[in-house]
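thought: user wants a sequence for this fold. calling inverse folding tool.
action: design(structure=
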């Protein structure tokens, strides 16, 4: 993931219902793409990695 660049998931559709993520090194930020100035959630990289891996694992079971 390129640092300090907001990006959306490659699985996001064109309906505008997505989140954006950016890697700042020490933190991973997440925001609503429809309201980018409304605030962000920040996670440490280890917590973000656990979250993403959990989604991938659960998605593989579906």
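)
observation: tool returned 62 residues.
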């Amino acid at each position: 993931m390129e640092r300090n660049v907001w990006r959306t998931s490659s699985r996001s559709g064109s309906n505008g219902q997505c989140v954006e993520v950016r890697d700042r090194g020490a933190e991973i930020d997440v925001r609503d793409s429809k309201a980018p100035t409304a605030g962000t959630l920040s996670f440490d990289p280890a917590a973000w990695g656990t979250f993403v891996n959990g989604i991938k694992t659960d998605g593989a079971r579906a």
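thought: summarizing for user.
answer: Here is the designed sequence. The helical segments are 45-61.
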